[in-house]
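debug: dumping io for the single-chain case to check the tokenizer round-trip. Nothing else runs in this session.
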Amino acid sequence: MAAPNLAEVLDLMHEIAPLELAAEWDNVGLLLRSDVGCQEVSKCLLTIDLTDAVVAEAAAFGADLVIAYHPPIFKPLARLDAADAAQGRVVRALLAGFSVYSPHTALDAAPAGLADWLLEGALGEVVPETVHTVGDGYGRFAELTKPIAWNALIERLKAQYRVKHLQVARPPKARSKIRSLAVAAGAGSGALRGVPAEVMITGEMSHHDALAAVAAGASVILAGHSNTERGFLRVLAKQLTAEFGKGLAVRVSKVDRDPLTIV
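debug: decoded output
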């Protein structure tokens, strides 16, 4: 199968995560087009963050396109300075000859996108009675047909996010069986604020938002910002491969990781 061109890959990405679903404040889409960006895309690297290590990995891989969930260019650039950490990565990406595309909140809100993946992982085999979009579409709230045990939920989330530890906050008389939960990727407290869920699952939450949630009777589960996002890259890789087959070599970054660790 022949390699697709950049336009074909971007068309598929728009089907998966329509850019019109992105938040108004977000910067999504094709953020960097290289000199060879209009030619064939035979190698694509998927990452959450475009770090220096990922830029080097993409260059060594020979990537024509990097899909970086978080936008490496967020605010308008008045100038480019290779000595600046963030701008330097953009310069080195350009010199390495690959384009960069970011779906970010468009992928969160998309049907069968990141928020739905988070919910499916939390529910396991449990079929929800109702599912509501919350937080302008970037989160999900589910009421369950049968309760989920707290301990089983914790173990399922550890497996989904591939982490050994989770941060939790629980009210003094929290139930061991859960009948409703809400999920949002990354720093999802804004999307979950005011949602009447017994459990809120996200990447990170401020101290005061966690206190407010617990005071309102909800338990909070935090996995680390990008840990709630990274697992979906495997899903995206399968979608790209299913469409383009051997014409597009897709790799999930091996060096992309959450910057925070537990010691």
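debug: round-trip ok. The mean pLDDT is 94.
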